[in-house]
Amino acid sequence: MFRSARSKLGNGKAARSPLNLDSEITYLKGAGPAVAQRLRTLDLRCVRDLLFHLPTRYEDRRKHTPCARLRPDTDALVRGRIVAADVRFAGRRTLRVVIDDGTGGLLLRFFHFNPAQRESLAVGRWLQAYGSVRTGTAGPEMVHPQYRVADEAEALQPDPYLAPIYPLTTGITQQRLRGLIALALDLAAADAALATTLPGLDGPATLDALRAIHHPKSDADAEALIERSHPAQTRLIHEELLAHQLGMRLLRGRLKARPAPAIRKPADAVSALLGVLPFAPTGAQRRVLDEVAKDLSASRPMLRLVQGDVGSGKTVIAAAALLAACRDGLQAVLVAPTELLAEQHLRTLSAWFEPLGIAPLFLSNRVKKAERSRVLERLAAPEPAIAVGTHALLQDGVDYARLALTVVDEQHRFGVQQRIALREKGGKLAPHQLIMSATPIPRTLAQTLYADLDVSVIDELPPGRTPVTTVALSAAKRAEIVARIGSACAEGRQAYWVCTLIEESEELDAEAAEATAARLREELPQLQVGLVHGRMKPDQKEVQMRAFKDGTTQLLVATTVIEVGVDVPNASIMVIDNAERLGLSQLHQLRGRVGRGARESQCVLLYQPPLSDMARARLETLRATTDGFAIAQRDLELRGPGELLGRRQTGDIGMKLADPVRDAPLVPPLQPLADRLLAEHPPLARLLIARWVGDPERYAMV
Ligand code: ADP
Ligand code: MG
Predict the structure, then answer these.
(1) Is the CB of 438 under 6 A from ligand 1?
(2) Is residue 6 pLDDT above 60, yes or no?
(3) Which positions are tagged coiled coil (predicted)?
(4) Is the pLDDT of residue 421 over 80?
(5) pLDDT higher for 8 or 666?
(6) Cis preceding linkage at 216, omega within 30
(7) Which CATH class for the 63-155 domain?
(8) 658 has pLDDT over 70
(9) Considering only CA atoms, which residue is closest to atom 24 of ligand 1?
(10) Which of 8-17, 106-115, 130-139 has the lowest mean pLDDT?
(11) Ligand 1: which residue has its CA nearest to atom 27?
(12) Pairing relation of β-strands 555-558 and 331-335?
């Protein structure tokens, strides 16, 4: 059944080992180098990987559904006699086939078909189709179902078992994968580790659970598997979540094992900062400042995520940490995801640090050559420094003599290599890492996704803010809104008008924003209307932002570039055009630009009717609450986990069976178990990581 490793490798050394779960897939029958190459794109390299390549769903073709009982939006297997077949040209060339099974009819529609196909679908023959049922004008339909035809009904039988559906890649069919996985399961029978139960995890042994999931046998199993309530699934979900906890702990252990520069007297730096701030910190800020100060004084690197809603005052935390490093003669950087945000941080920090005699450096790709060399020189010299900028600070060629701390703002916007790059800039010592995120994540979910980081939460807004009232209005009401802005600005208020993305193109976006600004200037000739968009030079943007901050302009038209972090306390009206196009967290971020001063603020969500159910639910949520955590929770429910969490998503974190959102409540009891396994059974811990995670370094990349 298996091609022997020997015949492939000749008399090489590896040849003597019999096939096992660590063997490469090429040694399996039917998997040549070309197949193996393709499977690598699915991260499948060895036999074990195949075993743990799990179906994402099942197709149930175990019985024929009578046409009369077909329900829309369900998948069904149907068998009937072809009673009509013709090609029509209504707008689009369509092959229409009608089958009848005695209880009723079903229309099959094909837009892509060849003459042979057309020929085979002849009236009088039998056809079996599997597909998703829709309601058409004349009854149930399927578009492009999977099908087979035969001259006798008996030749078209249902499947005996539920069909597992695996994630695929080009050139690999379900059939091929099922075959390879069956071979892997045969080999797995000889693997002792898979057959034993795991300490702390209830339910069947891993191998039995895998068999039940790959090869469902009984009808009772089938129902449970479809509902995801089968004990085998529950068992493996627990094992997978445990493996991820282990992986993140292992990574954390590795990072923490490197020595970090212990920063002396960080608490004094906090006091010094508080002495120059124009406000008193909130209780939540104080608590997080303490946590960070404690981390910084340790000779192991800090790995801390600070979560706080927009406007909760995360910049203060960053400033204190930067200051602590600098006062101790070390270097610290603050990296922001956009130019605009980096510039704003520079302004804020320059103002706060000025009385302390510290001028932060600035670096982005737009900094001119001479200035750039000056900054690089300063950073390469063993002198204390605080640098603010974009990811330009992380590029090759930027060397730090004494990097002790990196602060990353709005972490979810960062790309794959950047966190790693940050880590490597510290030379022999690992820099402390502070990561700030405005995407609130429910606590249980944070434990699932960030077990490698310590998490601080700023769960209190600075005082004196009045809540933002939110209304959703149809674009038909635009003229009214424009008039309201006119009178509000006449009373000294300021407003944002946000143009949302129309195309994935900065250029078109910029044009749309320019057109909107031109129109508003015509409609409101008494106002000064500013404009910022992504295509502007930084100094142009700067001029526009400054004019708005000074009150020279009263209305600022902007693309979503203002989304993160921009701070103008006097602005109290936010209009979001085509709000239905944006996701909940993005809308929440935008709305966070207002409600920063003492004045009552309004947010107007202008939408283009008709609204989809999803868009309606989003706008309704936003109207109902301003609590970022509640919005995050709702966002998860509405969208599923994949979209909300930026890079560290289901897909990136690579969960196969578990769902980080749905299954988050299962995680807390697994945490002590993970600690125990790492301490008492390290080989078992490594094995679980190998099964489910692969290389734990992947967490550092998301
Ligand atoms: P975040 O980055 O968390 O969205 P910022 O750090 O930009 O929030 O702070 C938002 C605004 O609130 C800024 O104008 C900041 O100066 C101000 N601020 C921060 N902390 C306080 C506080 N404790 N009291 C009053 N204002 C504060
Ligand atoms: Mg911020």
Answers:
(1) yes
(2) no
(3) 503-530
(4) no
(5) 666
(6) no
(7) mainly beta
(8) yes
(9) 462
(10) 8-17
(11) 462
(12) unpaired
- pLDDT at site 492: 93
Higher pLDDT, 146 or 634: 146
Question: In the chain, what are the domain boundaries?
Answer: 5-58+163-226, 63-155, 262-458, 468-625
Q: Please tell me the number of the ligand nearest to residue 309's CA.
A: 1
What value does the mean pLDDT take over residues 278-284?
96
Side-chain-side CA neighbours of residue 260 (13 Å):
27
Same fold, 262-458 and 468-625: yes
Q: Is any ligand 1 atom within 6 A of the Cβ of residue 351?
A: no
Q: Is 593 in the pocket of ligand 1 (CB under 6 A)?
A: no
13: exposed, middle or buried (Cβ count in 10 Å: 0-12, 13-18, 19+): exposed
User: Does 576 sit in the ligand 1 pocket, CB within 6 Å?
Assistant: no
- Looking up tokens 């045969």 gives 186
Given the structure tokens 């292992």, which residue do they identify?
250
Q: Is 111 in the pocket of ligand 1 (CB under 6 A)?
A: no
CB-ligand 1 contact for 281 (6 Å cutoff):
yes
d(CA 196, CA 576): 57
Q: What pLDDT, on a 0 to 100 scale, did the predictor assign at position 196?
A: 83
Confidence of residue 422 (pLDDT cuts 50, 70, 90): low
Give the DSSP letter string of 53-110: ---SEEE--SSPPPGGG--TTSEEEEEEEEEEEEEE-SSS-EEEEEEE-SS-EEEEEE
Tell how far the Cα of 506 is from the centroid of ligand 2, in angstroms: 23
Average pLDDT for 663-686: 91
Among 267-281, 402-416, 430-444, name the most confident range: 267-281
Nearest CA to ligand 1 atom 16: 313
- Which CATH code, of 3.40.630.10, 3.80.30.20, 3.50.50.60, 3.40.50.300, is assigned to 468-625? 3.40.50.300
Mutate which of 315, 322, 413 to test ligand 1's pocket (most atoms within 8 Å of Cβ)?
315
| Best CA proximity match to 302, nearest among 416, 448, 461, 422 | 422
Q: Left if phi > 0, otherwise alpha if psi is -120 to 50, otherwise beta: which for 469?
A: beta
> What's the chain's length in residues?
702
Say how many Å lie between the CA of residue 312 and the centre of ligand 1.
6
Q: Is 285 in the pocket of ligand 1 (CB under 6 A)?
A: yes
In this model, does residue 11 exceed pLDDT 50?
A: no
- Report whether residue 595 contacts ligand 1, using a CB cutoff of 6 Å: no
